[in-house]
From TrEMBL:
Residues 1-15 have a biased composition (Polar residues). InterPro entries: ANTAR, Bact_Sigma-Reg, GAF, GAF-like_dom_sf, PAS, PAS-like_dom_sf, PAS_fold_3, PPM-type-like_dom_sf. Keywords: Hydrolase, Transcription, Transcription regulation. Its EC number is 3.1.3.16. GO terms for molecular function: protein serine/threonine phosphatase activity. It comes from the Bacteria. It is an enzyme of class 3 (hydrolase). It holds the Pfam family SpoIIE. This is PP2C family protein-serine/threonine phosphatase. Residues 31-92 form the ANTAR domain. SUPFAM superfamilies: GAF domain-like, PP2C-like, PYP-like sensor domain (PAS domain). Residues 1-21 are annotated as: Disordered. It comes from Kitasatospora misakiensis.
Length: 793
């Protein structure tokens, strides 16, 4: 008898619970198996990341490809008898030479119980951090790989915000409800994490209950707490808080370094973490574009700074990413010259203690806003320090900083004026440290010396090598006064530039003593005075030429005066003429260079008539004097022909026009016949004579006649007057009557009145009469004056 295959006996009613228990156990076993597989997959992922880093090290060292490097790593592990993962950890430790690399040996030597290698556990955590941007996953990796072996049961990663609040970026070991309750910590709550940030150091409490500080999981995990500031590049971004179920274990130096390494990994995770904008914390890292829009709306100058690429832990370097439209540089530079530069490149004097850079660094590290009502800002304007006072506010926005300042309105204007003054004056400043040999030049100075900005500046003791050899003694005296006698000094020399161009330079410098009263520094300025030098040379040549011209003019004036005085002396005795008494007066010009062409003549002709004439050649100087001699002598010769006054002037006009060099003149000519007492006269553009009769004076009629030399032929009108005994006739040149503020007719009227007045007071003394006219004449032209007077007996 057999049984039928493939059939199962019918289950009994009492076997149902057993079947359910079997199913539940099978399901639990499956879940446990899947969990183990997940943990192995996570470990394998971290291990593969570590192995990939080791392969990269071998590629760099062996100069080989990835496949060959992986094969080499496996071969080395096989030879050493260890696993590939352990060898990869050792290679990465050697290449990194960082904090994690130094932990393993110390930690194993200090711990008696068997544990996994510390470096390997930290490298696994580092691999998880690099492979994930999820802060909770990083916290879980820290707890599983690095902290559970140390007895810790929970870990929290806190993100710090500028308003002193905290957000729970990631946690492990806490219940979901506890993590949700502590997702945001408002400002002012004294948690261990807050104290670690405020003190900027590790804060430990034996038990959280004894510390009496609120914190995450304090009701669930009441043991020891350790809070470490988490920073990157000198900037604190959060806190790593570790929880133990029991009292805080003793902290050895090796353990402390391991915890600090974990805090750095937490900071790396926070750099890529963003809070949920919809969450209650509301502290998402503000984007650059949003920050730009915010600062561009400000009315005060604002800079946006960020940590410069490649900036190490210390000293920090900040780059200027943006300036708003209202930005005003107190050094007078445009905004496009600031953007892209590092803060200390644009404002090197900001590094002074307690200055702008310290405030920026503090805000970047702690997130605490900074305000100052009267902060000193300093900059270098072409090597010249410039300082001002301003209200400054600094705030951190995610990974960037906003620096707002309010300047004195006059500061940028002064800076621009200084720059323009240096540019227009071609002045370059310098500073030379005599102890270190360091020399600082501004850009203008390189240009003055014909050097590129990258060239080595010329030291003062080498200045003579770049100057003209003849200027070496002057430079040596300058250096001796400056360096030996320690007094400010200046010197002008000819600079021989490398491009062959010679420039005239003036250097001015002053010594600067150090704290020990020893000469430590020299500062001063060079100025290009080439234009000034050549101007002075031109002026000197002009002065020499002017002096020569003045000498020649003075010589010509002296000769003209001698010639004039030889012909017409200023003083002349009485003239003894037939039937009349005559007198002449000549008053030279008050200034030698105004020697003119005024002339007179009074002589008896062969015909028995008396020639009376006065004339005035236009102009001054030797030409006027020689013209006067020519006309006077020509008229004397023409008068010997016996022709009348009009004919004489006609001939004299031709002589003036053809035989002289562009000379023009005025004249009045009279012929007196003693027997008939008849006076015939004519005028060529000259003032008419004045006749005094019986105490009454009047001018003779205005006869027609053009001035001499104007045209080649001219006819002149002739007049006649019958004189009587006691009559006085006065002939004169315009220097006797002309005034700048009166018309010619008014001047004639004044002369007529003066002649009558002189006659009433003096009588018939002709010499005294002429002297009175010269003395009381109202003329103000400083011109020569000729005066001829005759009195009928």
């Amino acid at each position: 008898m057999g049984t039928q295959r493939g059939t199962n006996p019918a289950p009994s009613a009492g076997s149902t619970p057993d079947r359910e228990a079997t199913a539940i156990g099978r399901l639990a076993s499956t879940v446990e198996e899947l969990r183990c597989e997940l943990e192995r997959a996570q470990a394998d992922t971290a291990g593969r990341a570590l192995i990939e880093m080791a392969v990269g090290v071998l590629i760099e060292r062996l100069r080989c490809g990835p496949t060959e490097a992986a094969a080499q790593l496996a071969d080395l592990a096989d030879r050493s008898g260890g696993s590939v993962l352990e060898l990869a950890s050792e290679l990465v430790n050697q290449a990194a030479a960082d904090r994690i690399s130094a932990i393993a040996g110390e930690f194993l030597a200090a711990s008696a119980r068997p544990v996994d290698p510390a470096a390997l556990r930290l490298r696994r955590t580092e691999a998880d951090t690099l492979a994930s941007t999820d802060a909770p996953a990083v916290a879980q990796s820290m707890l599983d790989h690095a902290l559970r072996p140390l007895g810790a049961t929970a870990v929290a990663i806190w993100a710090a915000h500028p308003d002193q609040s905290l957000s729970l970026a990631g946690g492990a070991g806490f219940s979901e409800a506890e993590a949700h309750r502590w997702r945001h910590v408002p400002p002012g709550v004294p948690t261990p994490a807050r104290r670690a940030l405020d003190r900027r150091e590790t804060v430990g409490h034996a038990t959280i209950a004894d510390a009496q500080l609120p914190s995450i999981g304090s009701l669930e995990i009441g043991g020891g707490r350790l809070a470490l500031p988490a920073g990157s590049g000198g900037r604190l971004v959060g806190v790593l808080e570790i929880c133990w179920p029991d009292a805080l274990p003793p902290r050895s130096p090796s353990l402390q370094r391991q915890f600090e390494a974990l805090a750095k990994l937490a900071a790396a995770a926070l750099e890529t973490w963003d809070a949920d904008p919809a969450g209650p914390s509301g502290h998402a890292d503000t984007g650059f574009q949003e920050l730009r829009q915010l600062t561009d709306g400000l009315l005060d100058p604002c800079l946006i700074l960020s940590l410069a690429p490649g900036s190490g832990d210390a000293p920090l370097q900040f780059a200027i990413d943006h300036v708003n439209p209202a930005f005003v540089d107190f050094a007078g530079r445009p905004g496009n010259a600031i953007v892209g530069a590092r803060l200390l490149e644009a404002y090197p004097l900001a590094a002074e203690p307690g200055g702008l850079f310290d405030a920026v660094e503090h805000t970047f590290a702690t997130g605490e806003p900074f305000r100052a009502q009267n902060m000193r800002l300093s900059a270098l304007v072409d090597g010249v320090p410039l300082s001002t006072r301003a209200q400054v506010a600094i705030s951190r926005h995610g990974r960037r900083l906003a620096v707002v300042w309010r300047l004195d309105d006059g500061t940028p204007r002064v800076a621009r004026l200084l720059q323009h003054a240096q540019r227009l004056g071609r002045i370059g400043g310098f500073e030379e440290n005599l102890l270190t040999g360091q020399i600082a030049w501004n850009e203008t100075l390189f240009d003055l010396h014909g050097l590129t900005p990258s060239a080595r500046p010329v030291a003062l003791d080498r200045l003579a090598d770049h100057a003209h050899p003849d200027d070496r003694p002057a430079i040596e005296r300058f250096l001796r006064t400056l360096l030996h006698h320690r007094r400010p000094a200046s010197c002008a020399f000819r600079l021989q530039r490398p491009d062959g161009v010679a420039r005239h330079i003036r250097v001015v410098a002053e010594p600067v003593a150090g704290t020990d009263a020893q000469l430590s520094m020299v500062r001063g300025a060079y100025q290009d005075i080439s234009a000034q030098h050549w101007t002075e040379v031109a002026l000197a040549a002009t002065r020499d030429q002017l002096a020569q011209s003045e000498q020649q003019a003075a010589e010509r004036a002296r000769l003209a005066l001698q010639l004039q005085h030889a012909i017409m002396p200023p003083a002349h005795g009485p003239l003894d003429l037939p039937d009349l008494r005559g007198a002449v007066r000549y008053r030279p010009a008050e200034k030698d260079h105004l020697v003119g062409g005024d002339w007179y003549d009074a002589l008896t002709l062969p015909t028995g008539e008396v020639l009376l004439c006065v004339g005035d050649v236009a102009g001054h100087g030797i030409e006027a004097a020689t013209g006067m001699v020519a006309l006077r002598n020509a008229l004397r010769g023409l008068a010997a022909t016996g022709a009348g006054p009009a004919q004489l002037l006609t001939w004299l006009n031709s002589v003036t026009h053809h035989l002289t060099d562009s000379v023009t003149a005025t004249a009045v000519c009279g012929l007196y016949h003693p027997g008939t007492r008849r006076l015939r006269w004519a005028r060529a553009g000259h003032l008419p004579p004045v006749l005094l009769r019986d105490g009454r004076a009047e001018t003779l009629p205005q006869l027609g006649g053009i001035l001499l030399g104007a045209i080649d032929h001219a006819d002149y009108e002739e007049g006649e007057v019958l004189l009587r005994g006691g009559d006085t006739l006065v002939m004169y040149t315009d220097g006797l009557i002309e005034r700048r503020d009166q018309s010619l007719q008014a001047c004639l009227n004044s002369l007529v009145a003066l002649v009558e007045k002189a006659s009433a007071g003096i009588g018939d003394d002709l010499e005294a009469h002429l002297d009175h006219l010269l003395r009381y004449s109202g003329a103000d032209t400083d011109d020569d004056t000729c005066l001829v007077g005759i009195m009928i007996r």
